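User: I'm curious whether this sequence folds into something compact or stays loose and floppy. Could you predict its structure so I can see for myself?
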Amino acid sequence: MSRRLHLYVDGACRGNPGPASVGVFVQTEDGVPVKEYHRTLGITTNNVAEYAAMEDALKLAEQLGGTDLKIHADSQLMVRQLNGDYKVKNERLREFATRILEFKRRFNSVEIVHVRREFNTRADRLANTALDLLKKKTAEAV
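Assistant: Here's the prediction. I'll summarize afterward.
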């Protein structure tokens, strides 16, 4: 039985490099929310955060039984790199891309599309929630 999922992914970074996080929002084809997910990454770049979000999204989709995926991301660079339109020149990003492209083979179909930022607000909010929680924990520890 197939299960089509829409995943919205975003990486956030405060400073570049700086504290970074990922956010992933998953919904069914009918728009029913399935999962909200976020985590922090430590200090890294915005591009690494975007790729980490994509990798996490694929892992979540597998856990949720997704078979056919449409992944929405506001990082035009990452989308074009993963779709083969641009080369991935950065070594660290190339390692992510290799893992992501390998992981895609586990699904019947994976479509990665670029969306404008205003159409990716839930994933953006989740990524920023992770950073806000990190900031709060850091302030409480001082």
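Summary: The chain has one domain: 4-129. The chain is about 40% helix and 30% strand.
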